């Protein structure tokens, strides 16, 4: 207080006069505004209470009328001669007509009722219940008698049971003895009223509002509500008989929401009708009125104090203009706030927000860098764009010549089964960190173009087109680290160096092509251009052609030609491949092709051989043993087995057709072309093909090509674009659409997570 007086004493007369004038002018207006707001809020609450009572009276009238109508209906039915006759006669087969007549009478009465109901007619003597309810709501004799015992009706009076799904009934039940002169000893009529039909009556009164209308029984439990979630809720303040209700507050909190509450005790049944309106809506209306009131207060106050505050506003104008420029999007500055403190808080908030944005950007930076490197590898950026991104993300690629190194897992199916999701990402990250450690201070940005593969861009100043020996040595060391620490082998392809950023894509494609030479070089190798020549490439192509020729001859039973081709294949292998693992891979692949072709005509290779041919293959110690095993056992056994089976002429034709497809699937095949090739009419070819393969030609060709695509995706690093071209698709889009329709997933995703075999 002393400080305030001290400050006031230091003010100039002008400031003192301004403050005194403002207080004197606005005090009466503020008092009037407070009183007006209070009176308006009180008036609004009284209006809400009045509307509540009006709605509750209307609900009581409707529910009383409804229940009274149901009671009158039960009396008419219980005293109906047909029902009395049916109860006395019993429910036996001999009295079926009387039972059906009783059912018809009840259904007819239901059709004239203001609310639809189902029924149960209990024959106590026969221990039988006649009902048209669903199985879920059907009552048993035991349930009916237990409800009668529990409610203890006086003489032949009716009683009502509230819905209780926990006890096996979800309907409102009205009980009446049949005949009316009995005391629930012969028969019992039960009317089932669906809760949803009752809810309609409650819902109509609260349509277009946020109010809740509840019907509460004497135990305080909600028996009816427009919101089914409220049914069964316990309202403790309504526990007890209606004439002994506790004092019920005007305000009530339910599920964390505050309500304005009104209630009305039923004059007909043991119910209490409750209406609750959320205080939030009332508060909004009250706030709106209060805002209008204070707006008038502000206008009047402004007229009174206009001249007194004019001078002080001019002094405050510089700070005010700065705040208005800073608080973009804010309708108004709080009238009683300290401008300097608000400005300080605003600057602090902007600084904090900027720091958070920078932290988020730093967290995402590695992923953005990966995306940029991948786009460079795939040739999706221009030279100018690449330079901009390198500068922006500080990728460190400042040279003019670049190598591309691709590290690829040798056994990808096993890798994909062992490592999934985040584990696979961690493996890729571990390989990248190993590269970073081996490179030292030289920046070598990495990316993961596809699962199981890490690509590295290495800048160099060497003008020679051959790979630098230091890089090859580093890659050998990397392979050793991966094998020792990660327990799987990889092969690494090193491209030739090329000038310019846009040629990085060509280097990447070259590295991918080099990886395919693992067929002849084996796995866990470092491959460079120096190790591969045109002769090696030609050898690989020759091996593949010989494999297909051998499979075709064996399928057609021409063992002499098959053996000759096998001798040529072995000669090619002995002259070019020194790795036993690569040799076993060649023969394993050939057996796979043979098994596939046999399966297309209904045979299984392992069943023919009575053994696992792949395991048997790996038991052979020398290539000569493999040749003898194939010539003397596998090929003759297949021929003998096929010859023992009665192969029709048309099956042989189709076998030749299937062999032709397997050798020429890369070309543009058509059914007409096949018919011309085998000198058969188009219609006959179509019919025979369908009979022998249970597929149309187009379906078979699609399946064959899709299986080839699947094989290449899983077991090779061939780009999807090249796979599409190999399978005679005009573009990648058409191939991707066909692959997704066939397998349910795009080819890129399939390569990343192939299904387990």
Automatic annotation (TrEMBL):
Pfam families per record: GGDEF_2 (PF17853), HTH_18 (PF12833)
Transmembrane segments: 17-35
Keywords of the record: DNA-binding, Membrane, Transcription, Transcription regulation, Transmembrane, Transmembrane helix
Keyword Lipid metabolism assigned: no
Keyword hit for Hydrolase: no
Domain HTH araC/xylS-type: 655-753
Origin: domain of life: Bacteria
Protein name: AraC-like DNA-binding protein
């Amino acid at each position: 207080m002393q400080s305030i007086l001290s400050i006031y004493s230091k003010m100039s007369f002008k400031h003192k006069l301004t403050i005194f004038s403002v207080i004197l002018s606005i005090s009466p207006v503020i008092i009037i505004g407070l009183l007006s707001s209070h009176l308006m809020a009180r008036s609004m609450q009284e209006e809400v209470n009045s509307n509540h009572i009006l709605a509750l009276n209307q609900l009581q009238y409707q529910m009383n009328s409804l229940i009274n109508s149901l009671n009158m209906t039960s009396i008419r039915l219980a005293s109906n001669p047909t029902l009395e006759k049916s109860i006395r006669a019993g429910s036996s087969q001999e009295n079926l007509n009387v039972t059906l007549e009783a059912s018809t009478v009840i259904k007819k009465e239901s059709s004239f009722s203001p609310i639809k109901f189902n029924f149960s007619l209990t024959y106590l003597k026969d221990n039988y219940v006649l009902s048209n309810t669903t199985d879920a709501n059907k009552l048993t004799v035991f349930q009916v008698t237990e409800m009668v015992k529990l409610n203890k009706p006086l003489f032949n009076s009716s009683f009502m049971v509230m819905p209780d799904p926990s006890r096996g009934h979800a309907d409102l039940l009205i009980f009446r003895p049949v005949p009316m002169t009995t005391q629930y000893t012969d028969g019992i009529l039960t009317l089932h009223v669906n809760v949803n039909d009752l809810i309609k009556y409650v819902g109509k009164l609260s349509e277009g509002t946020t109010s809740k209308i509840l019907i509460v029984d004497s135990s305080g439990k909600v028996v009816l509500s427009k919101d089914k979630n409220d049914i069964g809720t316990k309202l403790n303040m309504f526990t007890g008989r209606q004439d002994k209700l506790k004092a019920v507050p005007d305000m009530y909190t339910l599920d964390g929401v505050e309500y304005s509450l009104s209630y009305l005790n039923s004059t007909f049944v043991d119910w209490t009708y409750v209406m609750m309106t959320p205080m939030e809506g009332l508060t909004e209306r009250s706030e709106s009125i209060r805002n209008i009131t204070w707006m008038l207060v502000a206008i009047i106050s402004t007229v009174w104090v206009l001249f007194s505050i004019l001078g002080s506003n001019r002094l405050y104008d510089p700070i005010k203009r700065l705040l208005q420029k800073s608080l973009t999007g804010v309708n108004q500055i709080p009238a009683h706030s300290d401008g300097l403190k608000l400005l300080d808080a605003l600057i602090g908030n902007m600084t904090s927000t900027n720091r958070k944005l920078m932290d988020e950007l730093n967290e995402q930076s590695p992923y953005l860098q990966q995306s940029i490197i991948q786009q460079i590898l795939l040739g999706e950026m221009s030279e100018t764009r690449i330079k901009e991104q390198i500068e922006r993300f500080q990728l460190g690629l400042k040279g003019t010549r670049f190598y591309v190194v691709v590290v690829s897992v040798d056994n990808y199916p096993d890798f994909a089964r062992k490592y999934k999701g985040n584990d696979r990402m961690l493996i890729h990250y571990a390989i990248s960190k190993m590269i970073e450690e081996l490179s030292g201070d030289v920046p070598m940005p990495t990316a993961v173009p596809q699962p199981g593969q890490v690509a590295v861009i290495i800048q160099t100043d060497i003008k020679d087109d051959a790979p630098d020996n230091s890089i090859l040595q580093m890659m050998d060391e990397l392979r050793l680290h991966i094998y020792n620490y990660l327990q799987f082998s990889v092969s690494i392809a090193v491209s030739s160096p090329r000038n310019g950023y846009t040629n990085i894509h060509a280097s990447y494609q070259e590295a991918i092509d080099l990886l395919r030479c693992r067929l002849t070089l084996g796995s866990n190798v470092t491959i460079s251009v120096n190790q591969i020549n045109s002769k090696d490439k030609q050898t690989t192509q020759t091996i593949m052609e010989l494999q297909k020729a051998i499979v075709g001859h064996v399928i057609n039973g021409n063992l002499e030609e098959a053996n000759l081709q096998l001798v040529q294949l072995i000669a090619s292998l002995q002259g070019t491949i020194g790795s036993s693992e690569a040799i076993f891979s060649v023969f394993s692949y050939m057996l796979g092709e043979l098994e596939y072709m046999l399966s297309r005509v209904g045979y299984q290779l392992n069943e023919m051989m009575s053994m696992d041919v792949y395991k048997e293959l790996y038991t052979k110690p020398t290539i000569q043993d493999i040749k003898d095993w194939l010539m003397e056992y596998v090929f003759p056994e297949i021929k003998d087995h096929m010859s023992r089976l009665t192969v029709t002429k048309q099956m042989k034709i189709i076998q030749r057709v299937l062999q032709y497809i397997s050798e020429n699937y890369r070309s543009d095949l058509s059914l007409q072309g096949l018919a011309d090739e085998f000198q058969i009419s188009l219609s006959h070819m179509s019919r025979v093909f369908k009979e022998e393969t249970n597929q149309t030609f187009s379906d078979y060709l699609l399946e064959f090509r899709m299986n080839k695509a699947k094989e290449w995706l899983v077991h090779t690093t061939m780009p999807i674009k090249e796979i599409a071209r190999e399978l005679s698709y005009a573009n990648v889009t058409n191939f991707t659409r066909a692959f997704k329709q066939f397998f349910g997933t795009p080819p890129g995703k399939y390569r990343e997570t192939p299904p387990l075999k």
